[in-house]
Amino acid sequence: MCRLFGLHTGAQPQTCSFWLLTAPDSLSRQSRQQPHGAGIGTFEPSGVPHLVRSTLAAYLDPAFTRAAQEMTGTSFVAHVRFATEGEPSVANTHPFEQEGRMFAHNGVIRSLDVLDRELARRGVSDLVLGTTDSERYFALLTFYLREAAGDIASALRQCLTWLARNVSLYCLNCVLATPQEVWAVRYPDTNPLWYITGRRGTGSHPAGADPGSVRLRSSFLRVHGLDPSNNAVTVVASEPMTEREQWIMIDPGTALHAGPGDAFELLDLGLPRPSRQIPHDQLGAAATTQGGG
After folding, report:
1. Which top CATH class is 2-289?
2. What residue ranges do the domains of the chain occupy?
3. Is 245 a residue whose pLDDT tops 90?
């Protein structure tokens, strides 16, 4: 249905071109099976989100290639889409931005009338500019982020618990980014979500790259000669993107948290089982593109 990507590069801004364009299973390559739009988001040095989104498949889109090569930051979210709720349009293309944060989702939420009533009750319906279940999910999370005064772990726990108890769902896997942090959640156990973390090279070069050859350029920042050994890089993806790295599956109900700087942790959110789990055989056309399905 969709593929997620998140990258946190530690303290030093980098690009994400290796992972999005040239890795053995890059996001561009994955978009051949997820053709209904692609987007990349990071943050300007001022903290303002900068998104590039299109209805084209990433592998066909020169703007996606250019953005992957030029955008520089420490927190990235990217996504390639297989449309299951909402037509292909820029408004429905991930990642989404709300109140200075970026978000992308891989999964299916139904009972949208129930969710819409909750968004209206909480006063966040106006945050939804498109027609996807994913942007509605983000709007509910934004409400809980307001209530939790920026405590992201608490907001994720409350948001996912409400969804688990009140709507029909297949998967709520997501990546959330702030200017200093990347969060990712796998829930429940239906779709995989993988990560690697450590001093594994820069966002635009795999481990072992010649530090002297690293030249990062963007309209925001120019950095030359970064030393990969000084960068703690965390990558989150719906499927392993390289063959030589030891990718680790995030446990169901767990939040990965990378940043600020080189900080990294895994948090058990203590989530309940979904009350109304959608069986795989009821997903329709989306079933053929589900990770693990």
Report:
1. alpha beta
2. 2-289
3. no
